[in-house]
Amino acid sequence: MPILIKDEEAIRNIAAAGNIIHDIFDEISRMDLTGMKTVEINDNIDNFIKNRGASPAFLNYRGFPKSCCISLNDEIVHGIPDDRKIKDGDLVKIDVGVKYHGYIADAARTFSVGDVAKEVKKLLKVTREALGAGIKAAKNGNRISDISRQIQTIVEADGFSVVRELTGHGVGQALHEEPIIPNFVAKGPDPIISTGMVLAIEPMVNMGSYQVKTASNGWTISTSDGALSCHYEDTIAILEKGNMNLTRVMES
Q1: pTM for this one?
Q2: Which of 4, 71, 102, 183 has the lowest CB atom count within 10 Å?
């Protein structure tokens, strides 16, 4: 499949979708999640998206039954919201896609609930730093591997591991588009980054092994060794000079 180049109108619509996601995460960051069921968070997110005149991009995507993914602790991604209650010390990964006027933005954040260990705080910090470094490398004339290299270098320097079986991706007209963006330097196609690309960059970082397993529900992917995992993601647009973060558009 070719890499789809977006024009200014497309990027404006993706930014509008990204702004909704930004506001969702801003609201969640001010909430006490302790004792909440993950399905309650999902329902709040679903209502928020629809009240802004948009639709949840994840709902019914390839049969996914909810409006967002909520993954706890050793779950990496694709957790299905349900009746599980969030406890003190949990790591809560929330992945949200929003479709607005036919265009999609995609982002994820990890929220630590209550008191967590120093090493867990380090995991969150390193994952955020890896995302930031990957975004800085996403500019005209670089290659996708430059993003991957920055993420892998930062993560592994601190003794953590990057998930191999899951990647970032293009996004916009569809939830998953070309190019694939590994979080490690991989063999295979290595496209040049160019103006008009819109990329979802998303390091998934494990405290232990990078190996994963899939739950019997066919969706939830967890660490194979039960170690904690962290996930951050932003959608960016490649400009003539640098890039624009479309899911942090309200932040300095």
Answers
A1: 0.96
A2: 102
